[in-house]
Amino acid sequence: MKRILALIFALLGWFAIIMQYYLMLQNSALSFGEMTIRFFSYFTILTNLVVAVYFTFYVVKNPQKTEHSGLLTAITIYILIVGLIYQVLLRSAWSPTGMQKIVDELLHTLIPVLVLFFWFLYESKSGLHYKQIIKWTIYPVTYLLYILLRGSFSGFYPYPFVDVLAIGYPEVLFNSFWILIFFIGLSMLFIRFGKALNK
Questions:
Q1: For 101-124, what is the HEC assignment?
Q2: Which of 72, 76, 85, 153 has a Cα-to-Cα distance from 139 of 20 to 30 A?
Q3: Residue 70: its pLDDT value, please?
Q4: For residue 107, how many other CB atoms are within 10 A of its CB?
């Protein structure tokens, strides 16, 4: 059953990512190279890509090697951050229609919920420890550094709350700090809840 669910989730993830890329390609006036770079500059896309790769690996490989590593917990937290930030800060910013709306809901709503469901059922929670949070922060912090560095010479920032040109570095760093605090708090909550479930 685990592998069947993993296969379904992987297919949904790849469909949403590929379709979103196609839609951006159809609607963009940028060069192919710049559009592709910007596509992979969204935390939403990168994290959904991580999810799709994880579940693909789960289907084709022996998943027991990673079940005690906390990897699924980290991925679940990342994708929930995607969903929660979208619902709270970004949903009101635009109103997609047609296929774009379907893809939008897959990337920001359905896939985060499905990953959480999979975590609840199948994550080996006995291996979770608070010290893992430091390792889990590497991905979002590296992502932030990347978009700030690239934005400094490209002028493109993928989200309004990190748009240096619009709100300045102090506000961006302030927003990033509170998102990091939220990430750490959510991580601690997952570990605490996981330990409770394990008992």
A1: HHHHHHHHHHHHHHHHHHHHHHCC
A2: 153
A3: 87
A4: 26
Give the dihedral sign, CA 197/8/27/36.
Answer: positive
Work out the pLDDT band at 98, boundaries 50, 70, 90.
very high
3-state SS of 53-113?
A: HHHHHHHHCCHHHCCCCCHHHHHHHHHHHHHHHHHHHHHHHCCCCHHHHHHHHHHHHHHHH
CB burial class (10 A; 0-12, 13-18, 19+) of residue 75?
A: buried
- Whether the predicted pLDDT of 199 surpasses 70: no
Q: What is the mean pLDDT of residues 142-156?
A: 95
Rg (CA), the chain: 17
Structure-token pair, residue 47: 């994290």
Mapped onto helix, strand or coil, the DSSP state of residue 155 is coil
CA dist., res. 139 & res. 106, Å (int): 22
The one-character DSSP state at 137 is: T
Please give the pLDDT value at position 172: 96
Q: Token digits for 140?
A: 């979002």
